[in-house]
Design a protein that fits this description.
There is one protein chain. The chain has about 400 residues and is of the alpha/beta class. It has two domains: about 5-180 and about 360-405, Glycogen Phosphorylase B (Rossmann fold, 3-Layer(aba) Sandwich), CATH 3.40.50; about 190-350, Rossmann fold (3-Layer(aba) Sandwich). It has helices at about 15-30, 30-35, 50-55, 70-75, 80-100, 115-120, 140-150, 160-170, 185-190, 190-195, 200-205, 220, 225-240, 250-260, 265-270, 280-290, 300-305, 320-325, 340-350, 365-380, 380-385, 390-395, 395-400; strands at about 5-10, 35-40, 65, 105, 125-130, 155-160, 175-180, 210-215, 245-250, 270-275, 290-295, 310-315, 330. The strands form two sheets. The protein has a seven-stranded parallel beta sheet, sandwiched between helices. A six-stranded parallel beta sheet has the order 10-9-8-11-12-13, with helices on both faces. Helix 1 (about 15-30) packs across helix 9 and helix 13 (about 225-240) packs parallel to helix 19. The longest helix has 19 residues, at about 80-100. The chain is globular. It binds uridine-5'-diphosphate. The site of uridine-5'-diphosphate has 16 residues, from helix 1, helix 16 and helix 17. Uridine-5'-diphosphate (UDP) binds near residues 277, 280 and 299.
Length: about 400
Amino acid sequence: MKKFKLVTLLGIRPDYIRMFKLIKLLDEGQKEHNYEHILVHSGQHYDPELFGNFLKDLNIRTPDIDLGIGLTLKERGVNNYAAQTALLDERVYEMLEKVKPDAVMYLGDTNTVLSSVIVARYGLPVIHLEAGGRSFDWRMPEEKCRIVIDHLSDALYSYLPRYKELLLAEGIADFRVLAIGNIIMDAVNEWKDKIAESRVLATVGVENKKFILTTIHREENISKKEILENKLKDMLKFSEEKGLPIVFPVMPRTWNNIEKFGLGGLIENKAFIKTKPLGFFDFLRLEAEARLIVSDSGTVQEEALIVGTPCVITRRSTERPETISAGATILEGFEGEGTLYAKMAEAWDMKTDWDRTILNPEGGSPSERVFEDLMSKIQEGYFGKSRDYENIKNNSFVRKAYSKKI
Ligand code: UDP
């Protein structure tokens, strides 16, 4: 029998953090289950600081194929999402021609997942992890990516039952969707010891619970001078009032905009301890030891919940409201002057006795759940028939959504 060829196509640092265990499981299971696993990097993240050393530190293997889109665009001197998507589409098509996979698996909501249009158009099944995330905020670039890939996917792995319900309400067939728990739990659990060994507090020069930690990189926060300035000023004011420094690992894009807008003076203030992007173990340790976190990252708000540190989500909206209802995070919401300051003050007084298991209510390993389900799907020939016309037509959820049209 022909070996099933599964491509995993990822693009940015947090994709690899979330997927490290599943990548390992899929690599190790090839012999026993008679399939081939090919890891492909889109090249969306390529900066050596973000990516080169990052994989090595986490002991994640080098991808088999690097589509190199980020580097090519840099060489061409273009930097916009249209050029990025167009180049990615071309390179994904070439990869499909060469590799001839039987299915392509993606994670999350980055521009990389938009190439699922090419995969589906090619007639191949798409698999999506982190399916069903919705902020209902059409201003977010990621919201469009989520909707596109979810509706093209043959197998959708959602973190929580709530996400599955959202997908069913959008008319996606129930047999495609499985809630597996949030796979970030696997990263935090598997690397517990490494995180405990980190000496980052001494290196950065801060003490347990006597600092604030921040990361800011989203377009909504860094593309307008006024918004970025408000955020930095609010953090500064709060930190000076509490007499605590702010540890700030600055992403290259954020740094460029700080310089471009002439805001460098603000973070030259001694309250800010600026660093380059940190290794994952060091960063997790800082998250666990911080008194308060301020971040616009989707992953950081989940990690904050798991390690037990209050977090202000400095964004207009979130696709992960469960961290708010658990009482672990507060959404900034509106980004006017003083809003972040007010929310930091609110989060400062929050109790930290929330349930730290809500992201994976069933316990166990979400990556193992995906692996087992994928293996049975491959064995049963699921991907050959998931788009079968009869199969879709007779599905009750689809019937309900499209009732008389079919
Ligand atoms: N992270 C890291 N080093 C840093 C900052 C963040 O390893 O200096 C990790 C963090 O623990 C989380 C992920 O990177 O797992 C978050 O990635 P990102 O900030 O790109 O945000 P997201 O894509 O989740 O919004």
